[in-house]
Design goal:
The complex is a heterodimer of chains A (about 450) and B (about 400). Chain A is built from 18 helices and 14 strands. Chain A is of the alpha/beta class and about 450 residues long. With about 400 residues, chain B is α+β, with helices and mostly antiparallel strands. A five-stranded mixed beta sheet of chain B has the order 3-2-1-6-11, with helices on both faces. In chain B, strands 14-13-12-17-18 form a five-stranded mixed beta sheet, sandwiched between helices. Chain B has a four-stranded antiparallel beta sheet with strand order 7-10-8-9. In chain B, helix 5 packs across helix 12. The chains are: A alpha/beta (about 450), B alpha+beta (about 400).
């Protein structure tokens, strides 16, 4: 129970192999406040324009991936409750969140422990976020550390004046419904705290896996996918934009529509690379199949390529995406960087309607993995506690969703009856009681059947 | 055998009750009420029949009761009609006097009245009344009979009350379904005014407001003629409905609260007071704030008077009401309603009394019966008008009498 939840997150062999090398060291407990001399030293330097925070096991693993992609490690901050995992991280800054609850061990899958740990180290986290333009959070939701720490950190970073983009990994459904529920609750909190949450649902990548893909490879592939997204975002932030809008502006415009987004990224090279990229993007598992683009709130296309990128290519790319998007607003930005010689990398930042994904019914909890606790008492408590600490949302709830069948129905109906008729919206909540079925008494636009005191807004206290 | 036709029956199919009044014209020509029957109405909303079968049943009960009380058989009725579709307006007819000496003849008068009654109305509308007002001769107003006067042009105003034909047909059909004849249909407001106002009040200028269960009718008399009529499809039912909604009680309970604890004015002493509603067994069910009850009622009734005030102001008849305002209908029973009406319309308000008719005095002097009594009165006028011409039976009698007298005379 202690270790399993963390291991279930996207895990690289690197951290697993690191486990035996780094036994829990008592010295770390002696100096728990500042982890390592590097952290103390780096605070004296001028703070960078952006920081990437890897939170929890999944976050740390992704930092390793990103380092492989070429991101500078000095900008990375590893945040975790587990000393052993921190010790093996490549990040130059490490924050060990230790509280009385955790006692140097992990969070044991309890987001509350992660949250308390983060709140105890608030000043340190705040200091790291200060004078930073952009803060990227990378966290796996569903466990203890990521779910608990990320919303706190996002809030702190935002209070410090940074623009907060969170990359959140949602667990596989087979990891048990408790984890899914915790992840959804964490996502809600994160949506309330961060500016933009880019969601990476592991479950959606399962469709592209072959039957023979091993567990480790699955996580590797998933991590690679997300790290490519993050590095693209980072490239977009750092490289100069030659066409359209800079990536930071695209983020801002997208988050005005919805703070929940997905960001699939595909790259291709050689002849016909644009068609390959678009085909793969439209079929991308994160988007949930073809035809979903027209239902999105907004789409931002970000293009990275070498100097050989032609206008015709960009035109073709945007044409195809526009036609797929239908009436959804589409924005774009193109960057040229020598690093992308002969390669075109296209990312689609798609704003999605914020809605809580349906959580599997608790009746199926028995079929869940052994890692989840027994359904019942502890489970409910955790969820309840989460809701009590939920940040007051600044988001207006989205309008009720309309099913495709209903849209079809409405369209067909419109064709059948082209004559305009003054209808009455079914908004009336005031019952007309006795006069429900009789002809309304309309006098100068007022329905006299409705009680006078209601029409005149006289309150009965 | 001929006695049956000498009785006059007024039938009002109201929203809250069906009422049949039987009247008899005595030898002196005075109208005497000899019978009254009523029944709770169930099939009527806002003054119009919505459930003909139930309504028919209720009418039958009322008629049977009236027949028993009057000890007479009812065959013909004068039927009162109302509803939100009924409108009143004034129409003017013009006729040039063509004779060489410019003397207005009886034919000229008939022609001008015919012109005034030729009203352009949509096909689905039906004229209920076209009541003659004053004549104008060469623009000179206020002439009651221009025959014999000199003038180039004679004009006449008629007040037209009309409604939708189909909706007027509904109550007629229902009554005919009971094998009763409908002599005429009468606008309820007009009937109430007839019952309540005496000639002096009609001359001075008076407004009669009949607040019924489903509708409120109002009629303005001035200078002895009808100036204005109107219907609001709002009545006591609305008050009950507002109370049911506002106090969160069932409609029946709201109705009871309205009757027992209602008030048209929100008074200081009702503030902070509560009443406990108890079940049939005497167990307390709900505590109701009296202030809320009075406030809801007061707002609704005030609105009714305000709407009437607006309409009268538009019609420009508010200044003619020197006789004051008379309230009738069930709504007139609400405590303090006269004071509320006075406040809104700023005119003296009294409760209307049907004292212009004799017979069954105590039972009839209720505001609810004004319409039905007015219907009988209307009927008696109609009959008197008809009575001027001899009926076929009378003519036969006269001829036969003459014949026999002649036979007698010749045999001598």
């Amino acid at each position: 129970m202690n270790m399993l939840p963390e291991n279930n997150e996207p895990t690289l062999p690197l951290s697993e192999s690191a486990l035996p090398e780094a036994p829990p060291t008592p010295p770390a407990q002696d100096a728990p406040q500042e982890t390592g001399p590097v952290a103390a030293g780096s605070t004296d330097q001028a703070p960078p324009a952006y920081r990437i925070f890897g939170i929890g096991t999944a976050g740390l693993n992704l930092l390793e991936c990103l380092a492989g992609e070429g991101l500078e490690t000095p900008n990375m901050v590893a945040v975790h409750c587990d000393t052993r995992a921190l010790a093996n991280s490549c990040a130059s800054l490490k924050v060990h969140l230790e509280s009385r609850l955790t006692r140097g061990m992990g969070t044991a899958g309890d987001p509350e422990r992660g949250r308390v740990g983060a709140e105890e180290r608030l000043p340190r986290l705040k200091q790291l976020c200060e004078n930073t333009r952009l803060v990227i959070l990378v966290a796996g939701l569903g466990g203890g550390a990521g779910t608990g720490i990320a919303p706190v950190l996002a809030k702190v970073a935002k209070e410090a004046g940074a623009h907060v983009v969170a990359f959140a990994v949602l667990p596989f459904e087979c990891e048990g419904n408790l984890r899914t529920r915790l992840a959804q609750a964490g996502l809600q909190q994160l949506l309330g705290a961060a500016d933009l949450v880019v969601c990476h649902a592991n479950q959606q990548t399962i469709s592209v896996m072959r039957e023979t893909t091993s567990l480790v490879d699955t996580f590797k592939a998933s991590n690679a996918m997300l790290s490519k997204s993050i590095s693209t975002a980072w490239q977009g932030m750092t490289n100069e934009t030659v066409m359209g809008m800079p990536f930071a502006d695209l983020c801002l415009l997208i988050q005005q529509r919805s703070s929940l987004a997905v960001f699939p990224v595909i790259e291709a090279a050689g002849a016909g690379r644009i068609d390959t990229v678009v085909d793969q993007l439209l079929e991308h598992s994160l988007l949930g199949g073809r035809g979903t683009l027209c239902k999105a709130e907004a789409i931002a296309v970000t293009i990275h390529s070498g100097p050989e990128l032609t206008m015709v290519e960009v035109n073709r790319l945007m044409d195809r995406i526009q036609s797929e998007a239908g009436g959804t607003p589409v924005l774009m930005g193109a960057c040229i960087a020598p690093a992308f010689k002969d390669v075109v990398r296209v990312g689609l930042l798609v704003a999605q309607t914020e809605k809580v994904h349906p959580v599997p019914a608790p009746s199926q909890a028995g079929a869940g993995t052994a890692s989840g606790p027994e359904p019942g008492e502890p489970d409910i408590q955790m969820v309840d506690r989460m809701s009590s600490v939920r940040h007051p949302s600044r988001f207006v709830p989205p309008p009720p969703s309309t099913t495709p069948e209903r849209i079809d129905q409405v369209r067909r109906h419109r064709k059948a009856a082209p004559r305009m008729r003054q209808g009455q919206l079914p908004l009336e909540i005031i019952s007309k009681g006795r006069f429900e079925k009789s002809e309304p008494t309309i006098h100068q636009g007022e329905d006299l059947d409705i009680p006078t005191y209601i029409r005149r807004h006289v309150s009965l206290n | 055998m001929f006695e049956a036709s000498s009785i006059i029956v007024g039938l009002e199919i109201g929203t809250s009750k069906v009422c049949a009044v039987v009247g008899e014209v005595n030898t002196q020509g005075a109208l005497n009420i000899i019978g009254l029957g009523q029944s709770r109405s169930r099939g009527v909303r806002k003054g119009e029949i919505t459930d003909p079968q139930t309504a028919e049943e209720d009418i039958r009960h009322a008629i049977v009761e009236a027949e028993q009380m009057a000890d007479a058989e009812i065959r013909n009725t004068f039927l009162g009609v109302t509803g939100g579709h009924i409108r009143g307006f004034n129409n003017r007819g013009v006729h040039p006097v063509v004779s060489a000496d410019r003397e207005i003849t009886e034919e000229d008068v008939q022609d001008v009245i015919k012109n005034a009654k030729a009203i352009n109305l949509p096909a689905q509308n039906h004229v209920i009344h076209a009541i003659r007002q004053h004549f104008l001769v060469d623009g000179q107003d206020g002439i009651t009979n221009p025959v014999g006067m000199l003038g180039a042009r004679v004009e006449v105003d008629v007040h037209v009350v009309h409604g939708t034909l189909n909706r007027l047909q509904n109550p007629i059909r229902t009554v005919k379904g009971l094998q009763l004849e409908v002599d005429d249909i009468v606008f309820n407001g007009l009937a109430s005014a007839l019952a309540i106002l005496n000639n002096e009040q009609k001359e001075l200028g008076s407004l009669v407001i009949d607040i019924g269960g489903g509708t409120t009718e109002y009629v303005v008399y001035s200078g002895g003629i009808i100036k204005h009529t109107g219907v609001l499809a709002v009545g006591g039912d609305h008050v009950s409905n507002d109370l049911a909604y506002g106090l969160k009680v069932p409609l029946g309970r709201a109705e009871q609260l309205k009757i027992e604890n209602g008030s048209a004015l929100l008074e200081e002493e009702s503030k902070g007071k509560t009443i406990t509603v108890s079940s049939e067994l005497g167990l307390p069910l709900k505590v109701i704030n009296l202030e809320h009850l009075h406030r809801i009622m007061s707002l609704r009734l005030e609105e009714i008077f305000q709407l009437i005030n607006q309409d009268l102001e538009q019609a420009g008849v508010l200044d003619y009401l020197r006789g004051g305002i008379f309230l009738c209908g069930g709504g007139a029973r609400i405590p303090h309603i006269a004071r509320l009406a006075e406040r809104v319309l700023s005119l003296p308000v009294t409760l209307g009394k049907t004292n212009s008719i004799s017979g069954l005095k105590s039972a009839l002097d209720q505001p609810e019966f004004a319409t039905a009594i007015g219907l009988v009165k209307f009927g008696s006028f109609q009959q008197r008008k008809r009575g001027l011409k001899p009926t076929p039976t009378e003519r036969l009698k006269n001829t036969l009498g003459q014949f026999f007298r002649n036979v007698k005379g010749s045999s001598r």
